[in-house]
Amino acid sequence: MKNLSFFIARRYFLSKKKKGFINVLSIIAMVGVAIGTAALVIVLSVFNGLEDLIRSLYSSFDADIKISLKEGKFFEYDEELKTQIQNIEGLATIVEVVEDNVLVRYNDGESVVRMKGVSPDFEKNAELRNHITEGQLKLTEKEQNFAVVGQGIRYDLSINSRNNFLALQFYYPKNISPGRSNPSSMYNSGILMPAGVFAIEKQYDEKYIFVPLRFARNLIGKDNECTSLEIELEDGVSVSEIQNILKRKLGDSFDIMNSDEQHASLLKAIKIEKLFIYLTFSFILAVASFNIFFALTMLALDKKRDISILFAMGTPIKTIRNIFLKEGAIISLSGALTGGLFGFIICLLQQEYGLISMNMASAVQEAYPVKMIATDFIFTMLSIAIITILASFKPAQVAAKSVEIQRL
């Protein structure tokens, strides 16, 4: 009696004697659930892949930990601060950074860009070296300084890193006040030869130029000051642990951010989009579950005679109700497992062979990135379970009610 409801529900679903309209409707309901499940799994996996892709791109540009002032722009990197930071174990490099907007001219073109002056340890950035598309990652050679420019700036100013006769001209305003007759006294200037071009992501490529720290400080008029410190950690060192140590040592006057926190708004936006996609596809699955509702309702009406016989044989009303609940569970579970497997196979093929291209000439990755996470499958199945219970409850009540009418 315990498994009677499941046995009968399975017989109704797999009946070979009578393939009528109800059976077709059940199959349509199962296919609808399968398609919705596969679509949800694939879309969520694509969002996971995009999030990982964005993190990998930013890791080429951003350090594991960035230290900057909460209020103000420049701070002095004196011996006391240097000692506090360098005494922490697990730090691979500490890069001093001076960053500000400057005007750059090259040949007949000019543009306002973000100049990022970095100390020599920056050239150890192996990940950025992989994004050099022209020339090399070189900021100093003997006593000569060089610049590494973003690909967008290169196109905008028509920069040729192989041309040894044209240099980049940098201009930074200083002491602007009325009454000055000599324009050259209102700005600092300097020149650098372009050594290389990098291509990471559009917002960096069209905005940033890397220059040596000493050049940036001279141009801006600073001696020992920085706008930030960028710290790379040794392999296996916990970012959160070092971050907490730095917060305790440096106090509340500094912002100490890991790579995710440096782009918190963007990553949060991706998670919100993923949530809304999940809710949207869950709604689509709910619409698809109307087929389950209609199939079970028609089954309850079609099987009135069977229900009457079961009731006459002493079958409890609860068992009769469970027949239709389990029938709905079989339909949805079959669809969910089929759709989940299909979605898994599609994502696996996309990971291995890149079947679907992003169709963008400037894309950093040719194929759409995908990443499957177990929790996506779990929440998808949970959504289907809830939807199935809601869709199956009314037909089960109809069947139970018909039995109660007979008893009266």
UniProtKB/TrEMBL annotation:
Key word Hydrolase present: no
One Pfam family from the record: FtsX
Name used for this protein in its record: ABC transporter permease
Coiled-coil positions: none
GO cellular component labels: plasma membrane protein complex
UniProt xrefs under PANTHER family: LIPOPROTEIN-RELEASING SYSTEM TRANSMEMBRANE PROTEIN LOLE
Phylogenetic classification of the source organism: Bacteria, Pseudomonadati, Bacteroidota, Cytophagia, Cytophagales
Key words, A-Z: Cell membrane, Membrane, Transmembrane, Transmembrane helix
Residue ranges occupied by any ABC3 transporter permease C-terminal domain in the UniProt entry: 281-400
